[in-house]
TrEMBL record:
<feature type="domain" description="Sortilin N-terminal">
    <location>
        <begin position="256"/>
        <end position="371"/>
    </location>
</feature>
<keyword id="KW-0677">Repeat</keyword>
<dbReference type="InterPro" id="IPR050310">
    <property type="entry name" value="VPS10-sortilin"/>
</dbReference>
<dbReference type="Pfam" id="PF15902">
    <property type="entry name" value="Sortilin-Vps10"/>
</dbReference>
<protein>
    <recommendedName>
        <fullName>Sortilin N-terminal domain-containing protein</fullName>
    </recommendedName>
</protein>
<dbReference type="InterPro" id="IPR031778">
    <property type="entry name" value="Sortilin_N"/>
</dbReference>
<dbReference type="InterPro" id="IPR015943">
    <property type="entry name" value="WD40/YVTN_repeat-like_dom_sf"/>
</dbReference>
<dbReference type="GO" id="GO:0016020">
    <property type="term" value="C:membrane"/>
</dbReference>
<dbReference type="GO" id="GO:0006892">
    <property type="term" value="P:post-Golgi vesicle-mediated transport"/>
</dbReference>
Length: 433
């Protein structure tokens, strides 16, 4: 090798060595990013399941001990709240303040907190701990894991005791512990606007999605099948019921009545005898003998003895101030008895034990709007009074157990198999046990 080439190789070797040395220096721990989350306040608190911890959770995000501004902090809960993820953005001090609502399981609960980069990849994580206590004593309790942005519109129950709640454009949720905690029904997803959910006699489920149609489940809500578009997709929903034999009856604000006997796959319009009525219909009901009933918004009760093909008014609403009957609700209990609510001078709550042929008075409630009657597993009767509340009738007397908070015809409610009363509390759910 000549001298010129030798000098060139020597200079190249020195240059490469210098580059390697500089690269090692940039990767040294003293100059690397060191992202860190720190719990400033709120760790290791104790409170009751379903409640919000008294102290806020305060988290600080830093990089090499310098506060990070404008970074996303993600909060991941567990149990029935696993789908209720929250993200907050750090302040100029690198802090976020989070209010933690406990899930429904007693014992230790964990809140995982993650610092995210612009691609939502975690830069650091930390865990906040708490201890959740079970509800104590008899009274009204707040249910766990109900999103406060939801709008609850319907409860239904399977024979197993599992209860479902439809919450508008959010996950339908279910409870296996009599309303204490509510888990998401993931098989249906959270992109549909569910306006009603119903359970059938064989524990089948149907969910009505706004401007879509019916979703059907035969495995307690694990999987769902879309049954196709409906003829009433552009009509305003008024009421829907699944009868004791599995018939679906849908009524619209446009005064139409539809019936399906295959869980919403096909529908028949059932307006014969109803077309001249200017009022919409509610409380579609099937008696034990197969007769179908509707209540119109003017207080007239309609009946069909041929599966809805023809309808006839069975009460007259001739208002002379004294002698008239105004029906405002109807319900068929599992034992086949019909319960009728009347708002008129001699109104109240009535029961029929012969498929509606005759009625006897249970409660004297003149000029009171008796809505949403139902029978609990123990035989007690529950009902709403307009702008008043939810009442319980135990066979001797009626007493108010829940104030409707000005909700008019009443908020949705259901009675669990163990007797717990579960109500919508806009937007939360509460239960009495």
């Amino acid at each position: 090798m000549n001298l010129r080439n030798f000098c060139y190789v020597l200079l190249l070797s020195v240059a490469l060595a210098s580059c390697k040395k500089d690269g090692s220096s940039k990767e040294s721990p003293s100059n690397a990013d060191k992202y860190q989350l720190t719990i400033i306040n709120g760790n290791n608190q104790t409170d009751t399941v379903g409640l919000m911890l008294k102290d806020s959770i305060v988290i600080k995000a830093t990089n090499n001990d310098k506060a990070l501004t404008g970074y996303h902090i993600q909060f991941l809960r567990a149990g029935c709240a696993e789908d209720l993820t929250n993200e907050l953005i750090t302040t100029a001090e690198g802090k976020v303040v989070f209010r933690w609502w406990l899930a429904g399981n007693a014992g230790q609960q964990n809140l995982k907190v993650r610092l995210l980069d612009t691609q939502n990849k975690p830069l650091d994580s930390i865990t906040v701990n708490s201890t959740a206590l079970a509800h104590k004593g008899v009274g009204w309790h707040l249910s766990a894991c109900v999103p406060f942005t939801a709008s609850l519109n319907k409860f239904c129950k399977l024979s197993t005791g599992r209860i479902f709640a439809s919450l508008g454009k959010a996950y339908v949720r279910y409870s296996d512990d009599n309303g204490n905690s509510w888990f998401p029904v993931k098989g249906l997803g959270d992109t549909h606007n569910i306006v009603s959910i119903l359970a059938g006699p064989k524990d089948e489920l149907v969910a009505l999605a706004f401007q879509e149609g019916i979703y059907y489940s035969k495995d307690a809500g694990l999987t769902w099948t879309f049954m196709g578009t409906t003829p009433f997709a552009n009509e305003v929903f008024w009421d829907m019921a699944m009868t004791r034999t599995g018939k679906l009856i849908y009524t619209s604000r446009q005064r139409n009545v539809y019936l399906s006997e295959d869980y919403g796959k096909t529908w028949k319009l059932l307006n014969n005898g109803l077309t001249n009525n200017p009022y919409a219909y509610t409380y579609p009901t099937e008696a034990q003998n197969g007769d179908l009933y509707l209540v119109d918004d003017n207080g007239v009760l309609y009946k069909s003895t041929d599966a809805g093909a023809n309808w006839k008014a069975v009460t007259s609403h001739i208002n002379d101030g004294v002698n008239f009957e105004q029906v405002v609700s109807l319900y068929c209990a599992n034992n086949g008895w019909l319960y009728k609510g009347r708002q008129d001078p001699t109104g109240g709550l009535f029961v029929s034990k012969d498929n509606g042929a005759t009625y006897s008075r249970l409660l004297n409630l003149p000029n009171s709007f008796v809505f949403m009657p139902s029978m609990a597993p123990n035989g007690y009767i529950y009902f709403h009074l307009l702008f008043s509340g939810l009442f319980l009738y135990d066979g001797n007397a009626a007493r108010k157990i829940w104030d409707d908070e000005g909700a008019g015809r009443g908020t949705p409610y259901i009675i669990a198999n163990n007797g717990a009363v579960i109500v919508s509390s806009r937007p939360a759910i509460r239960f009495y046990n």
